[in-house]
Amino acid sequence: GKRADVALDVPQTVVNFGTGGIKRSDPDFMTAYVLNFILGGSAFSSRYYTEVREKRGLAYSVFSSLIWLEHTDLFIGGTATRADRADEAISHITDETRRFANDGPTQQELDEAKSYLKGSQMLALDTSAKIAGALVQYQLDNLGIDYIDRRNALIDAVTLDDAKRVAKRLWSGGL
Question: Model pTM greater than 0.90?
């Protein structure tokens, strides 16, 4: 990993960060999916959001995502902040990622993330186009025709021990 700064004469700085991700077929994928939600995947309750926006007002939003492709897998994220505060925002994102890798989530964070992810699935399938897109993605990911029926059980199966182990696996090397 390396950092690349590109100076532009603009008041807003865009920050993108990332590291290796996890294959969709990996047995730890669902755990990583839940962890990403806790770390940066939830718009208003993630650790990144709390540290960067709520506590310090450094950015309007901050996010992370898991990306899985045929030949690569990524954990990516980003934010935008005032140019003179970019280093501070990056520092807090880096620190929180390190803390998450070392300690993992709390039981409460894990329980709340699992509950949200299970409850929101059907809301993400509220149009024919979204249903069709999801079915195509399930097929591309080789999840099986019964994935929609199995998904909540896969989320429920994520334990705190799994979460702590996978957090170390994914982010102990930092961003």
Answer: yes
